[in-house]
Amino acid sequence: MYKIKEAFYSLQGEGAHAGRPALFCRFTGCNLWSGKESQRMEAQCQFCDTDFVGTDGQNGGRFNTAAALMSHLDTLWPEGAAHKYIIFTGGEPALQLDDALIAAAKALQYTIAIETNGTRPLPSGIDWICVSPKVAAPLVVNEGHELKLVFPQEHLPPESFSHLSFDNFFLQPMDQSALPSDRIALEDTQTQTLRYCLQNPQWRLSLQTHKMLGID
Ligand SMILES: C[S@@+](CC[C@H](N)C(=O)[O-])C[C@H]1O[C@@H](n2cnc3c(N)ncnc32)[C@H](O)[C@@H]1O
Ligand SMILES: Nc1nc2[nH]cc(C(=O)O)c2c(=O)[nH]1
Ligand code: SF4
Ligand SMILES: [Mg+2]
Hints:
This is 7-carboxy-7-deazaguanine synthase. InterPro entries: 7-CO-7-deazaguanine_synth-like (IPR024924), Aldolase_TIM (IPR013785), QueE_Cx14CxxC (IPR030977), rSAM (IPR007197), rSAM_sf (IPR058240). [4Fe-4S] cluster binds at residues 30, 45, 48. It comes from Marinomonas piezotolerans. Belongs to the radical SAM superfamily. 7-carboxy-7-deazaguanine synthase family. Helices cover 17% and strands 25% of the residues. By secondary structure, the protein is an alpha/beta fold. It has one domain: TIM Barrel (Alpha-Beta Barrel), CATH 3.20.20.70. A nine-stranded mixed beta sheet has the order 3-1-2-4-5-6-7-8-9. Helix 1 (66-74) crosses helix 2. The structure holds S-adenosylmethionine, ligand 2KA, iron/sulfur cluster (SF4) and magnesium ion.
């Protein structure tokens, strides 16, 4: 049984593929936070900007088989259009994404991407792996296409990842507007991030462009 919080067709807002039309499948649940606001400050990941609880979002639900889920998701792709691209996210997609779902997505000609916290092993066959490390959680996915670190995170300097086998290294300013107590404003995390990139040119700036555009 796959549990899906929501699914939508939008533009990839972040990282190396920013601006690319994509189908998003947001799985329910995460191993680093329950998703309950009352438990945020005890969570292993405390700055999450996403609601991944339940199956009640747009196009969300429970699906018994990979084929049933993929045929539901495929109705959201523009009819007849090629360049099919699906991004599995969450929550933590590595808790639910499996070989059967990869096969079902490939059967419908999708190129497959994942946004993961990197703490769980991944099935093979994913075309674009984006890992976003979190402070309290050791990485098991140490290679991929894109490492996208939310910045700044206390005790998690970018230098601790710069030697890993990723094709692209991004820093994404922490958006603290979702948090109950605003500790630093977004402008400040943006300024800190761009300063770090200018001083360390291995790293590129990733802005969450969908938030600027006011789209999903
Ligand atoms: C909601 S997460 C879901 C996928 C996976 N659990 C992960 O953490 O990578 C999607 C992306 O948003 C990033 N993100 C989450 N909260 C953020 C915030 N407050 N500011 C900036 N990026 C954030 C994550 O680091 C990740 O790259
Ligand atoms: N447009 C858009 N791009 C995104 N890239 C990663 C997202 C995510 O929540 O995983 C996301 C998202 O939620 N919306
Ligand atoms: S690991 Fe990802 S989904 Fe889980 S709480 Fe952190 S940012 Fe949110
Ligand atoms: Mg998001």
